[in-house]
Amino acid sequence: MQLILSIMANVVPNLETQRLLLKPLALDDAPAIQAVFPQWEIVRFLASHIP
Q1: Model's pTM, two decimal places?
Q2: HSE-up of 2 (CA within 13 Å, CB side)?
Q3: Where does 1-51 show beta strands of DSSP type E?
Q4: Chain centroid, CA 26 distance in Å
Q5: What value, to the nearest 5°, has the Cα angle with vertex 28 and ends 24 and 32?
Q6: Which tens digit of pLDDT belongs to each residue from 1-39?
Q7: What pLDDT was estimated at residue 33?
Q8: Structural domain spans, the chain
């Protein structure tokens, strides 16, 4: 998984405006994502490539 995220970080560009910055996911983002989506009823409908 770490290798995939490293490759994505090098391939997928950041998208930036004055008010928003979208970056590729990183392994360090996992705790924050898990805190927001702790319920299987929500997570099961997300794409399978979300860590």
Answers
A1: 0.43
A2: 1
A3: 15-16, 21-22
A4: 6
A5: 90
A6: 666 666 665 677 888 899 999 888 888 888 887 787 767
A7: 79
A8: 2-43
